[in-house]
Design brief:
The chain is an alpha+beta fold and 220 residues long. The chain has 2 domains: 81 residues, no CATH class; 103 residues, 2-Layer Sandwich (Uridine Diphospho-n-acetylenolpyruvylglucosamine Reductase, domain 3), CATH 3.30.465. The chain has 9 helices and 6 strands. It has a 4-stranded antiparallel beta sheet. A two-stranded antiparallel sheet has the order 1-2. A hairpin with a 2-residue loop joins strand 5 and strand 6. Helix 5 crosses helix 8 and helix 8 crosses helix 9.
Length: 220
Amino acid sequence: MRMLRGSGIAGLAAMARQSERDGVLLARPLLHVTKSQLVATLEKARIGFADDPTNRDLNFTRPRIRAVMPALAAEGGDARNLARLASRLARANAAVEVLVDGAERYLALRDREIRHSGPGAKAFNAQVFNAKIFDFQTFARMPEEIRLRLLLRAIERFGHEGPAELGKVEALLSALDGMVAENPGPRRPMLKRTLAGALVSLTDGRIRVGPAPPRRHRAD
């Protein structure tokens, strides 16, 4: 389903055995056990289990995809090969995340250099605690996937409207790539966009990601 929707490698890596969501650790110790094995074990032990009828309702996408799985398996796309693909994608995703960690640390060092030098350093220091700030030129020299994930991390940290859609972050990155490092005037933002509750701007050669102001509600 994620492949058909154009997911990135993180989404195609399938479920992780352990993950964290909103401070809660989620463990999935039975991912390697097939459904038939689980059902047989539960029936033998006389343990009741839930059977979701929507899993057989072709009005939903997941059952329709399951219906074509035999044809895919005949072409080599069986569960074993798909699981192997997901495992390889998970391995690649983990490697990219390590690179993003390093890029984030490097940008933080560059931020520190900028904050302690040049005009306006005091004002810049006042902003740094409630925003993620990147030097635009340093950021622009990094590979596209690294830059995309750096933006995603910052938006997820400061946004307050749920996870950002990958396509929208890609469009934002494309807009940033079309910018030049010099502003047309002092303190004038070259780009200013709101995404998933985060405000992303490019001003004075720096990308700033912080919380967006609350939306204004129209009066009834």
